[in-house]
Each structure stands twice: as structure tokens, then as C-alpha cells.
Design brief:
It contains 25 helices and three strands. It is mostly helical and 689 residues long. The longest helix is centred in the N-terminal third of the chain and has 33 residues.
Length: 689
């Protein structure tokens, strides 16, 4: 009935089926089976958690790990103590039926009911297709709060058997949280590494490859539970650690087997858990107390809303992508309770907790309210609030390249700033993984394969399978390469169109170039601070040199602007300058011009004032000899300036023009005396000259 399943979540329908089956069994006079805690924790829960851990979206999980941990640890502790304290107050004020329930029992009840259930969250959130950020926040919280729940549950259970609880017991209980959580993660990592190492040697026995994944994961869970560590965190750690190495070693068929077997196994477990919840509700012993049950339900909702609001206000101070009020509402509303709470309640001992039946009744009421009311209304609320949905897009090579490029870029920016951010540590971990871990855990050439090429191979295989399943080459996806098509159907393309493959040496050379130029450019630098910069010893000298050069050029420009050489009968300097500019090589010095004054002109810019340089010009009559008629006729002789040698400084290198006689000549010529203004219509160069 599609109309029903679109409104009611699958988990609600399964509970209804369980209620009907339990009622039917009870109606025929038989005793319905109850969901025993051992069956739940040893057989039904591990497949669901392994499926979640093995296929965990690692990038969004690690990027939001701080937020998830705050919600999982601080949020669960707040819920447990807030709810336990208020329920103790309710029990003290609630009359004769509740007076005997002490503080420890209420705190234990609060720790059981406060944890968000991963099974219920998965069942509801996968149906509404919420965006990736909200899904990973709520689901990550439900996975990681297991450590807090286990610690508080065992702690208060132990305290209940003590005659007196000392401060030392409380301190040890606080440290036991770190032991339980980190111990569970350590057990999972160890088994994950062993599974990856084992898969390195299974190339000749492909049939049993999937068995190692299930075997080592289950051993991780049992080993953690054996020592009262967090089994859920051990399973998640094992799945996350083993997956990249196992997938590189096993065959594609084994990978498909693992994927579909895990999905099937977790789906069956989820179905059985919700059906058993319904059956156990009918079969169990219940003690209904209106005050206790309604107070529990009300305070559960209040604690969840207050915890999310306060923690989000604190988290948003440090997040770049802030959590909006809509996001906060979905996180608070998505705090569903499920079968873990029921099983923990069922584990309670009648000897220390005589009110176990009342606790179980309240737990089942809260589970039913969250799964039915919140689970059924969250989809219309998501649509009403227009919360961003998950976009189903296939990853492409383009996206992968840009993602890796941005990771390198952000790591480089962090290095330049001297900031040890999460990009820096992620890059360190990736380098350690490539240098040491991959060589030990991945067999053959795959250990040296770059991430981009591995991703490309995976995409090609996926598209090739889709192509075959769709019924041939008729509908080729745009991204399928020619190589993929040749692998599927070699006869479909002529031989001459086969792309020539690169040789191993050439491919390795290209990779080496890319590695040396793109990935090994990082150096540890100190944080930038203008007060700690080392002064350049040559900086002052360079500044002085530039100032002197500038002043010298300004002075020379001024002098050349005022300097005018009187026109001679042979030719005027303006015409000579113009002629030399047009053809400088045509004007060679005359044979008998050794004692004549010389003007050298730079042919690069003949029109500029700086191009005239009086190299050797003596005033006629100042030397004591009368001017000869030849000199009088020839006047000034122009010579092309020799190009300066590279590296010489035209300001600081003394030339011939720096002699005292030349400087006196410059002073003499700087003021040639009064000169009649040319009349209107008179040419600039007189006709007689």
C-alpha cells in the first residue's frame, strides 16, 4: 500500500505488525517471546552497526567530528543528569507509589532513556532523505553516545550495590569513560589492521574473502563487550580502518558480496528488532503510573530541546557553516529512542531495581511516542520548513580533482599562517599512510597507486557494470572511457582506434614529476609577524643608491633643458640630431678631428635631452691658440656613443664628462646670453645657415 508507506515510516509499521503478532499469540493461549537482551546485543545489533561503520561517509564525519562529539558526550550527559534529577524530584513529590525510588535509580533510568538510538535514526532519516550535514550530525551522535550510555549504565548499576559511594568512586567513574570509549576504538583499530593484513594474502582463495571482514568485525565487537568497553565504537573503528585496504586487495565480486550481504543482514536485524519490540510490549509485565510516565515523556522532550539550543549556541561560535534554527529544530526533533533503551531496561536486576516493570513501561512509551509521533511528523515538517534535502549526484573525476586541489591549497595556507588546523593533521596522516601503512597492508602495485587513479579505476568498473546491466552499448554514459568499452566488448571498435597505453616507465615519470612539483612543496615556517621579520642588511644601501640616482637624473635633465649650443655655419645641432637619429651609422668622425669638441649621441633615444653628452668639448680661445680656419669651418663633430658594458652604473661610474674643464664648459654654456626672439613667419633655421 504505497499511500500508507509514504506517510508512516517502516519502523512504525513493523512495530504494528509485532503488536498484531503478539496479540495473536496471546489470543491463542501461548506466551509470546520477549526480546532478550543477550539476543539483541550479540546477534541483532552488530550487523546494523557494522553496516553503518563500514559504509560511513568518512569526509563529512571527520569534518564535523567536533560537533558530533559535543552532542554525543556533553548532550547525553546533560540529558541523563537533567532527566534523572527532575525524575527524582517527581518521585519525592509524587506520592506513596514513587517515594521509595532513590536518586541512583533515577539517574540510571535517565542514562538509559537519554541516548539517541542509531537503529531508529537510520530507519527514519534514510526515508526522508535529509541533507548530509544533518544526517551525519544526528546519526554520528547516535553512534558515539554509546560510550557514554555504557559507562553511565554500568556505573550506576555498580553504585546501586554499594553501601556508600565515595569521591574516589566518582573520580574512577569519570576516568572509566575514557577507558571505555578509547579502549573500544583501540580494539576496533587493532582488528581492522589485522583484517586488512589478512586480505593481502587471499588472492588465491577469493571465495572466503568476505568471511574475513565479517569475522574480524564480530571479534572486535565481542572482545570489546567482553571487557565492558564500547562494542559499537569498536565495530565502527574496525569498519572505517579496514575498508580502504580490504577493498584494494579483494576482488570486485567479493566487494559486491560484502556490500549486499551487509545490507541484507542489517535490514533483517532491523526488521526483527522492531517486530520484537511490538511483541514484547504485548508480552511483558507492565506497571503503569501516570505521573511517572507522563513526566518522563515531557522531561525527555524538554531536556533534548534545551540541550540542543545551548550546545548549538556554543558550537556556532567556532563553526564556519553555522547551524540555522531550522537545523537545530531537526536535530532536536530527530532524537529518537529505540530498542537499545528497551534492552538496557530489560537487563536490570529485580534484586536492586524492584521498579523495573515501571521503568520498562515508561521506556516503551517514550520509544512509541518518538518513533510514531516524531517519526511520522518529521517528513511533513521537513517539507514545511523547506529544509535542504540530500542531492543524489554521482561523483566525477572533475569533482575529485578539485576536492584534492582544495585540500592541498588549504593545507598550504595553514602552513603559511603557521596554524596547525585539521587540514594540516589530515595531510600528515595521509603522508604517513602512503609512506608506511599502504606498503604493509596492500599487496602489489596497488599500494603505490595515487588516490585519483584508484578513484578513476573504481568509477570505470562501476560504469562498466552499469553498462552491461543496461543491456549493451546502446546507451553509453558520457563519462565512460574508450578503454572501458574495449574491456566490455572488444569487437565493437576497430583496432586502429585503440588508444596507445603509456609504458610503466613513462607513467612513473609523470607521477614523479607531479609528486615532486605538487605535493612536496611544504616547509615549516614561523607565524608571520611584522615585528619579528629579519631586517635586510642591504635595504638601506639600496634606498640610498636609488635616491642618489634619481637626484642625479633630475639634475642632468634640468641642465640639458637649459643647455643650447649656438648654431654653426655647417649645420645646426637640431638638424644634426635629427639626421643622426634617422641614420646614426652614416655619420663617421672626420680624419682630422682629434682636437675638435665632440658631442656623442645615444641612438636609442636621439630626441631625449639625456642623449646629448659632452664628452670632449673645449672652448675655443681658452687653450691659448687662435682657432684655425679648418676648425672654424668644420665646427662640432658628432660621434655615436659607445654602448655601455652590462652591469655599469651611469650615475656612479665616472666618465670623461666628469672632468673639471667639462663642468666649467657646462656652466659657460648653460647661459648663452640674450637672444632675439624669432619674428612671426621667420623659419626656425635661417636660410643662410
Amino acid at each position: 500500500i504505497p499511500s500508507v508507506s509514504s506517510i508512516v515510516p517502516e519502523s512504525c509499521l513493523l512495530i504494528v505488525v509485532g503488536l498484531l503478532v503478539g496479540g495473536l499469540i496471546k489470543g491463542v493461549g501461548e506466551k509470546p517471546p520477549i526480546l532478550k537482551s543477550d539476543i539483541f546485543f550479540l546477534f541483532l545489533l552488530p550487523p546494523i552497526i557494522l553496516d553503518a561503520g563500514y559504509f560511513l561517509p568518512l569526509r563529512p564525519f571527520t569534518e564535523n567530528l567536533g560537533t558530533i562529539l559535543i552532542f554525543a558526550v556533553v548532550g547525553t550527559l546533560w540529558n541523563a543528569f537533567f532527566l534523572g534529577g527532575l525524575m527524582y524530584a517527581v518521585c519525592q513529590l509524587g506520592g506513596p507509589g514513587l517515594n521509595h525510588i532513590g536518586l541512583l535509580a533515577n539517574l540510571l533510568f535517565g542514562s538509559i532513556i537519554s541516548a539517541v538510538d542509531p537503529v531508529a535514526v537510520l530507519a527514519v532519516f534514510e526515508e526522508i532523505h535529509i541533507n548530509e550535514l544533518l544526517h551525519i550530525l544526528v546519526f554520528g551522535e547516535s553512534l558515539l553516545n554509546d560510550a557514554v550510555t555504557v559507562v553511565l549504565y554500568h556505573l550506576f548499576e555498580e553504585f546501586a550495590s554499594f553501601e556508600q559511594v565515595t569521591i574516589l568512586d566518582i573520580i574512577l567513574g569519570f576516568f572509566s569513560f575514557f577507558v571505555v570509549s578509547l579502549g573500544g576504538v583501540l580494539v576496533g583499530v587493532i582488528y581492522g589492521v589485522i583484517a586488512a593484513f589478512t586480505s593481502r594474502f587471499t588472492s588465491h582463495i577469493r571465495v572466503i574473502e568476505p568471511l574475513f571482514v565479517f569475522l574480524y568485525s564480530y571479534m572486535a565487537y565481542l572482545s570489546a563487550e567482553l571487557f565492558h568497553l564500547s562494542g559499537i565504537m569498536a565495530l565502527i573503528a574496525a569498519g572505517v580502518v579496514m575498508r580502504p585496504y580490504v577493498e584494494a586487495n579483494i576482488s570486485h565480486k567479493s566487494h559486491t558480496t560484502i556490500k549486499y550481504f551487509l545490507k541484507m543482514w542489517s535490514s533483517v536485524s532491523e526488521t526483527l528488532i522492531f517486530i520484537f519490540l511490538g511483541v514484547s510490549t504485548v508480552a511483558g509485565h507492565h506497571y503503569w503510573n501516570w505521573t511517572f510516565v507522563i513526566s518522563t515523556l515531557f522531561f525527555c522532550l524538554i531536556a533534548r530541546v534545551l540541550g540542543v539550543l545551548v550546545l548549538t549556541w556554543f558550537i556556532n561560535k567556532f563553526r564556519i557553516v553555522k547551524l540555522t534554527p531550522k537545523d537545530q529544530f531537526i536535530i532536536a526533533y530527530g532524537g529518537l529512542r529505540g530498542a537499545i533503551a528497551f534492552s538496557l531496561g530489560y537487563l536490570l536486576d529485580y534484586k536492586h531495581f524492584g521498579m523495573r516493570d515501571m521503568f520498562l513501561t515508561a521506556i516503551i512509551t517514550v520509544i512509541f511516542f518518538t518513533v510514531f509521533v516524531q517519526g511520522m511528523t518529521i517528513r511533513p515538517l521537513v517539507d514545511l520548513l523547506a529544509v535542504k534535502k540530500k542531492q543524489e549526484t554521482k561523483r566525477s573525476i572533475n569533482e575529485e580533482i578539485h576536492t584534492q586541489f582544495l585540500d592541498h591549497l588549504l593545507t598550504g595556507i595553514e602552513d603559511i599562517c603557521g596554524h596547525y588546523g585539521h587540514h594540516h593533521w589530515k595531510d600528515k596522516l595521509n603522508r604517513f599512510n602512503k609512506k608506511y601503512v599502504k606498503k604493509c597492508l596492500i599487496a602489489g602495485e596497488r599500494s603505490k597507486e595515487p588516490q585519483l587513479i584508484a578513484f578513476y579505476h573504481k568509477m570505470e568498473m562501476k560504469q562498466a557494470i552499469e553498462l552491461v546491466e543496461s543491456g549493451g552499448i546502446g546507451k553509453i554514459p558520457s563519462a565512460v572511457s574508450t578503454v572501458s568499452i574495449q574491456n566490455i566488448n572488444p569487437q565493437s571498435l576497430p583496432l586502429e582506434r585503440v588508444l596507445p597505453a603509456l609504458s610503466k616507465d613513462k607513467e612513473e615519470e609523470i607521477r614523479k614529476i607531479l609528486r615532486t612539483n605538487l605535493q612536496k612543496t611544504r616547509q615549516r615556517l614561523r607565524s608571520y609577524n611584522r615585528h619579528t621579520l629579519v631586517a635586510d642588511p642591504y635595504e638601506e644601501a639600496w634606498n640610498q643608491m636609488l635616491l642618489r640616482r634619481q637626484k642625479a637624473r633630475q639634475l642632468e635633465q634640468k641642465m640639458n633643458n637649459y643647455l643650447t649650443v649656438p648654431a654653426h655655419r655647417v649645420d645646426s645641432p637640431t638638424m644634426s640630431r635629427a639626421r643622426i637619429g634617422s641614420d646614426p651609422l652614416a655619420y663617421e668622425p672626420k680624419e682630422d678631428s682629434e682636437n675638435l669638441p665632440i658631442i656623442t649621441i645615444d641612438p636609442a633615444s636621439p630626441q631625449s635631452p639625456e642623449s646629448v653628452d659632452l664628452m670632449s668639448e673645449e672652448p675655443k680661445g681658452c687653450s691659448g691658440l687662435p682657432p684655425s680656419p679648418e676648425e672654424d669651418e668644420e665646427g662640432l663633430v658628432m660621434r655615436v656613443k659607445e654602448p655601455s658594458s652590462p652591469g655599469t652604473d651611469d650615475v656612479f661610474t665616472p666618465g670623461a664628462s666628469d672632468s673639471p674643464s667639462n663642468q666649467r664648459m657646462l656652466r659657460c654654456l648653460s647661459d648663452p646670453g640674450p637672444r632675439p626672439e624669432p619674428e612671426e613667419g621667420e623659419p626656425f633655421i635661417p636660410k643662410g645657415q
